[in-house]
Amino acid sequence: MGKKPKGRSRKKKKFPVMAAVMAGAAAAAALAAGIGAGYYIYRGKQYETVFFPSTKINGIDASDKTVEQMEKLISETADGYVLTIRKQDGGTEQITGKEIGMHSVFDGKLEEYLADQEPMEWWIQKGREKNYETEAVIAFDEDKLEQRIFSLQTLNQENAQMPKDAYLSEYLPGQGYVVIPDEPGTALDTEKTAEEIRTAVKTLKTELNLSELDVYEKAAVTSEDKALNELADRLNRFVNMTVTYTFGENQEVLDGEVISQWLRLGEGGEVSVDQEAVTAYVKGLADNYNTASKKKVLKTSYGATVEIGKGTYGWRIDQAAETEQLYQILLSGESQVREPVYRQKAASHGENDYGDTYVEINLTAQHLFFYKNGQLIVESDFVSGNSARGYDTPFGAYPLTYKQRNATLRGADYATPVSYWMPFNGNIGMHDATWRGAFGGSIYKTNGSHGCINLPKDAARTIYENIEKGMPVLCYHLGGTESGGASLGGAAAAGTAQPADTGSAQAGAETESVPETEIGTETEAAVNAGAGEGANEPESSHSGMEETERYRLPWEYGPGMTEAETPAENMESQPETSSEAASGDGGQSQPGPQPDTSAGESQEVGPGMPGAGNEETQEVGPGMQNN
């Protein structure tokens, strides 16, 4: 019983201690809260007289500063104020406060900024920057500032470079036309610049970088200009193309560098192509690649080589048609590979355009050879134009104009039917001459034709059966191949792969330029005396014709038929009309039968090609005269 009270005594003693501790903690917390609240209120009271943290006035840090302190700092700033102006080229100029009479003027603006603060919000405003810009805290002489601004070398535009507009480049190989960007220059907009300087001074800025401001004169046309870029696109549509012409193994490429020189700009920015330039280009192609009327080199069947310096055989570009086609191609902007439009074609491109199918006519030897695909088909003597009367058959390279069966050669006092008519040089052609008993030799000198190649019928038939219009007929003279007498025949010799060496020309003879044939100088008596050789030739009966008459021989197709009765189906092709021949061959005509032009169709003068007359003047040899 004695121990229990003691125990109770200890328990009663413990409770007051814990209560006291708890009470003390509560009191401490209350004290701390009181102290914290008091500090916050204390700090808030301070911001009734000083500016919040992170406050700037005209760029001067005003944090925890009074109005008086800020007035002092601003006054010091005004007294020592310097504005540095940085130019685009890196140079600088300055305006000082003293130059413009700068001084401080305080009109209550700072007090207004301070009064606007809520002091008890100081903790919230602690991390927030607040910037005030005011003109009221300083003053300066406005006139002095204006004078100083316009005395700055920065605004002196005497040596300033004006901005350069963006523009379109010349044609650049591989790029076409590109827009060259505009350049800013160094010229300032003086009013904009002066206004920026005024604002900087009023706000006490100490540096003004003009390169960062919109104060320099701008180009009227910039690289983003829509019209300029659209024009570049239109031009590039023309020059970013090629037209490749093929001439056998050779090529001519018309590219942007050339095309760019042909482009013309209209006042509204439209792009056109100079048609005269296109015409000149096609003419250049013709000058380089036309072979008609140009020299041919022939390795003759006699072993010697001759130059045939005239004639109409060869390639001939139809310049008008090709100019129009090329013009349209350029407008389309589409690249292509093409051959030009030809008025006349030849057998091949390259060194010899006549290929390996041709009639070789040696006027000196009065002997011809017909090769087809390199094989000798016909070899025959012939009789050509009467030299004594000036009817010499002209030398030259000519395309076969057409071929006609059963034609009648009609003159003033004769009408001679032939079975195989093959004209190649105007009205001069090859045909059978059954009235002749001999061919070759010197018959032609006094008893020749009016210019045609008279052949034995078998030879004429074989040639006719194997030749087609447009195939080349090569007529030449070759000294040393004259024959002493006439040879009969005209038998074909087929199967010879190479031209036969007759032995009448020296092997390895040098190239001989074919001369103009001179008119014979025999007297009329001598001519008449020689008429006995081959006197049964009907054409010889026209020796008494006037020269102008012999170029106007009437002509009909089919024995006994008039021109009006000529059936169109009898003609394999029509020759050129007289008007076409006149326009193409300088108005010169050929002796021999005149072609019928009643059908009104243009004559095709190259293998498979239509033509409208020769472009070059036709040489018809001595003794010929204009019709």
Task: Describe it.
The chain is α+β, with helices and mostly antiparallel strands. The protein folds into 3 domains: 42-156 and 185-218, no CATH class; 227-292 and 312-344, Ubiquitin-like (UB roll) (Roll), CATH 3.10.20.800; 358-584, L,D-transpeptidase catalytic domain-like. The protein has 15 helices and 30 strands. The strands form 10 sheets. It has a 5-stranded mixed beta sheet with strand order 22-21-20-28-23, covered by helices on one side. The longest helix is centred in the N-terminal third of the chain and has 44 residues, at 3-46. The chain is rod-shaped, with a radius of gyration of 55 Å. The N and C termini lie far apart (176 Å). The model is unreliable at 1-15, 484-591 and 593-627 (pLDDT under 50).
Q: Please tell me the total number of domains.
A: 3
Per CATH, what is the topology of the largest domain? L,D-transpeptidase catalytic domain-like
Largest beta-sheet details: 5 strands, mixed
Poorly predicted runs of 5 or more residues = 1-15, 484-591, 593-627
Per CATH, the superfamily of the largest domain is L,D-transpeptidase catalytic domain-like
What amount of the residues lies in strands? 15-25%
- Number-wise, the strands total 30
Summarize the structure.
With 627 residues, the chain is of the alpha+beta class. It is built from 15 helices and 30 strands.
SSE layout and pairing:
Elements: H1 3-46, E1 55-57, E2 60-61, H2 67-79, E3 82-86, E4 92-96, E5 103-104, H3 109-115, H4 122-125, E6 130-132, E7 138-139, H5 142-151, E8 167-168, E9 179-180, H6 190-202, E10 207-209, H7 226-239, E11 243-247, E12 250-254, H8 256-259, E13 263-265, E14 271-273, H9 275-289, E15 296-299, E16 305-308, E17 316-317, H10 319-332, E18 336-338, E19 342-344, E20 358-362, E21 367-372, E22 375-381, E23 396-399, E24 404-410, E25 415-425, E26 428-432, H11 443-447, E27 453-455, H12 457-466, E28 472-476, E29 512-513, H13 524-529, H14 547-550, E30 555-557, H15 578-584
Parallel strand pairs: 1-6, 3-10, 11-18, 16-29, 20-28, 26-27
Antiparallel strand pairs: 1-2, 3-4, 5-7, 8-9, 11-12, 13-14, 15-16, 17-19, 20-21, 21-22, 23-28, 24-25, 24-30, 25-26
